[in-house]
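Hi R.,

Here's the chain you asked about this morning:
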Amino acid sequence: MKKLRNSSEPEVIAEFLKSEFYHEEFHADRDSFERLVFEADLTSEDENAVRRALLFRRRGHLWREVPPDTQWWEVELEPGDLRFVRVFPRAQWRKIANGSYFLRDIVHRIRTVRFSGVKRDFIARVRALSYRLRAERDHSAVLLIGVDERNPLTIIEGNHRLTAALLAGPDTFSHQFRVLCGFSPHMSRSCWYETNLANLWRYGQNRLRNLFYDRDADVNRVLCRMSQTSEAPARDRVMRPAPAGKIVGGSK
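And here is the predicted structure, written out as tokens:
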């Protein structure tokens, strides 16, 4: 793995939000925030605060489990890193993995096992993405977390894309996407990195605490605060609609 440069939490949140913005949770006010999502100004604290609240609307339960001392880097993955990269065991990945969530083991099973039913349909979508990646460059970002570069890395955003890229071949895997990796010596306390009873208990407490109202996901609260502390145009800038014809979408 090559560390290319330091990244920041606002940048990582901005990239994460781009991949999530096609979901239903954003339908009601999509037009108001398209420009802020797809033309992010990372120097604006106001914009960063709104993007964080928007991400928390859908992924706050995930982001809270990332240690606050996490240091983010843009990295380049090399073929030798394959032995460290694993998907998070959720949804269809559990049914495909057969106990090993390391990416190269999952790709091996996709290549050698004849799946049926919903698993076959899921694999077909991954293969379709793989064929597309062979023909065109994808500049989106994938997110990984780990203790350091010498220990396993878990994908928290980009399971489908990285699996499809590895299916296409090691070169495609190494040169597609921007890879943002978060390192923390406390990452083993995150249930997204290490699933154990203590981590799941902490995660459950956080979910329960924010079940009925998530202050961090309240975009209106952030906008009201901006109105009180900034000039009126600041709020107008973050809520300007994107130009007509802006494509909204994402791939996992």
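One quick note: The longest helix spans residues 45-63.

Cheers,
M.
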